[in-house]
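Good morning,

Attaching, inline, the backbone tokens for the sequence recovery test we're adding to the shared suite. The designed sequence is right after.
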């Protein structure tokens, strides 16, 4: 029986970082590995440099707020352009102090993505060359994509919620 490419990626990761892996799943056939946060940059560098893995393209990076867990997840989606394989890495940071290292030394394109994640979720990427708001005004004091803020103005009285089943 032939070993799948996803199984090879997991086996290679486990050889060196088994203690860092918290969970592995494949939603919609997209390999997703949840890791401890402490070695995320080292693991991404390993995936980039490894001669068989070569995840050398950062597709995207972003945040997800989980208010029920009081955590913010940061996800990194990597692509191996040689074998056309994708990999999502996910770490969880505490909501009150979401801090992790920047990956801009590995992927220059992470600069904008990390700034955007900071701007909307408040994640601090230590070592980032220019971590400031990129889409919202600089003096904004909230992070608008966190689910602690209502989706609409609760003081509005010019709409009729009966029309929407509320």
């Amino acid at each position: 029986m032939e070993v799948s490419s996803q199984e090879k990626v997991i086996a290679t990761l486990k050889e060196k970082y088994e203690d860092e892996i918290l969970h592995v799943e494949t939603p919609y056939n997209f390999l997703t590995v949840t890791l401890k946060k402490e070695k995320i940059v080292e693991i991404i560098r390993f995936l980039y440099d490894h001669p068989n893995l070569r995840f050398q393209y950062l597709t995207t990076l972003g945040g997800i707020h989980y208010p029920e867990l009081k955590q913010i997840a940061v996800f990194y989606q990597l692509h191996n352009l040689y074998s056309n394989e994708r990999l999502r890495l996910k770490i969880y940071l505490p909501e009150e102090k979401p801090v992790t290292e920047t990956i801009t030394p590995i992927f220059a394109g992470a600069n904008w993505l990390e700034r955007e994640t900071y701007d909307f979720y408040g994640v601090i990427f230590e070592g980032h060359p220019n971590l400031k708001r990129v889409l919202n005004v600089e003096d904004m004091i909230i992070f608008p994509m966190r689910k602690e803020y209502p989706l609409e103005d609760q003081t509005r009285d010019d709409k009729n919620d009966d029309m929407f089943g509320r």
